[in-house]
Amino acid sequence: NRRKGEGFPDYMAYMLSKPLQYTPGERFAYSNGDTHMAGCMVQRAVGEPLVKYLGRKLFIPLEIGFPGWETDPDGTVFGGTGLYLTISDMMKLGILYLNEGMWNGKRILSKEWVKAAGSKQISTGIEDVWSSDYGYQFWMVPANKNAFRADGAYCQYSIVLPEQNAVVATQCSEQNDTVAFVKLLREYIIE
Fold first, then answer.
1. Chain centroid to CA 59: how far?
2. Tens-place pLDDT, residues 138-162
3. Beta bridge partners of 103
4. What is the band of 122 on the pLDDT scale with cuts at 50, 70, 90?
5. What average pLDDT score do residues 27-53 get?
6. What end-to-end distance do the CA atoms of the chain give, in Å?
7. What is the rounded CA–CA span in Å between residue 182 and residue 47?
8. Residue 100 to residues 60, 85, 105, 113, 176, Cα–Cα distance (Å)
9. CA gap 158, 83 in Å, rounded
10. Distance CA 31, CA 8 (A)
11. What does DSSP say about strands 102-103 and 83-84: parallel, antiparallel, or unpaired?
C-alpha cells in the first residue's frame, strides 16, 4: 500500500522498489497499485497510452467514447481507479461480459477471457454478504454462484447475472450505507 506522499512522482519506480511479501498467486491482497502496474505493462506492450488503446479496442466500439480517467504524475491513467463512467456506460460493459464478449454482433473480447475474468481465480479469504472470491478484476457474488461484478467506490457496481440474463448497474452518492444497499440488492435482485 502506498502511504501519503510515498511514490511521488514515479509510481512505477516506487512499486518496483518494494519487496514481494508473498509469492504471486499464493495469497490475495487487493491492490490498486498492482492494477496500475498491469495497465502500465499493457501500455508498454501495445506502444500507445492505455486510454488510447482501450478507446480504440473497447470504449469506441461500445459507444462510450473517451471517458475521463485520472492520471499519475507522469500522465499515465490509473489502471485500477479513477475511471469516470455514466451508469449507461457501466451497463454497456456489463452487457459486453453478459454476452461473452460480443457487442452488436461483433466480437470485442474473447469468450475465453470473459469466462476467465468472471470466474474464481483466487480465494480472498473474505466471506461476508458481498465479498468472496476474485477473478480478473471482478469480484464473485457469493449469493449467486455464477454472478460477478466490477466495483467502484461508493456503491458503484456493474453486476453480471448470467443465470438471470441480466446486468445491474448502480451509482450512489459518497454518503451511503453500503451494507443496507447490498442487502436490498441481494433481497430483490441477486438471489
1. 15
2. 999 887 878 999 988 778 889 999 9
3. 106
4. very high
5. 91
6. 34
7. 40
8. 18, 21, 11, 9, 32
9. 13
10. 17
11. unpaired
